[in-house]
Amino acid sequence: MERKPNVGGQAVIEGVMMRGAEGGIAVAVRQPDGEIVVERMETTSIADKYPLLKKPFLRGVVVLFESLIIGMKALSYSAQVSGDEDEQITDKEMAMTIAFSVLLAVGLFIILPTWSMRFLKSLTENPLLLNIFEGLLRLLIFVAYVGGISLMKDIRRVFEYHGAEHKTIYAYEAGLPLEVDSVRGFTTLHPRCGTNFLMIVMLISMFVFAFLGWPGLVERIASRVILMPLIAGVSYEIIRYAGSHMEQAWVRTAIMPGLCLQKLTTREPDDKQLEVAIAALKAVLPSDEDKAEPLEVGEEANAG
Predict the structure, then answer these.
(1) For the range 151-155, what are the long-range contacts, defined as Cβ-Cβ under 8 Å and sequence gap of 24 or more?
(2) What would the pLDDT profile of 121-135 be if each residue is shown by its tens digit?
């Protein structure tokens, strides 16, 4: 059977956002009264205007930032529909939220680990070792952060919808009918997941930064921030390759750390959550795909 076009998405509050191979986006949310509301919209990528951005290693950076913006809009919509917010977030508030999220990530995963290495300077002056220890600390902070938020009740429910998203995508990729009985038996761990992407970013950055020497703190922070888009681009290509070459043993081994981390970021969903994920995916598929007909391989979208 020929491969399906890649679809992807993310979990939102009481729902799932799905992104089709042709740019369509759908957010399905279960309202407090039990009804599933589906909002579908079309989106265009800046890469459509500038084809150069579709080239390998550049497209990953574009997908990352566009996914961040789309994801924030989907979260805002789901919060409103699910009853958690009275008003939808404005564009200004969304921009401020994204900026704060980026600054928090830089502070937590770049500034804190490299600053903390000052406490190891008395043990070693070896730049290679200091950079490796910094990378290990960054990874430890990341895993601890994910593990910590996974204990929160509301986040745990989002992670259940994350599992529903993955199961539904697996059923679609297998050419099965998009029904709860067909979806239920699949694993919640998917090689194209954003969690897997972040783990690969962590591992590649550890390797790249190991050879940058050990300049002053400001120079170290600047070098890591500047190189992060390149690392993200490389990581995206790895995830994209892995998603369609899981039959290769070395690929399965390479993505194993990310799959293990998904045990924290996904949970087993119930049938009602699967219904929401199915509704979201059906909304971004052409009508003739609802029957799960085999199609040509596509590009770009990542599982959430």
Answers:
(1) none
(2) 889 999 999 999 999
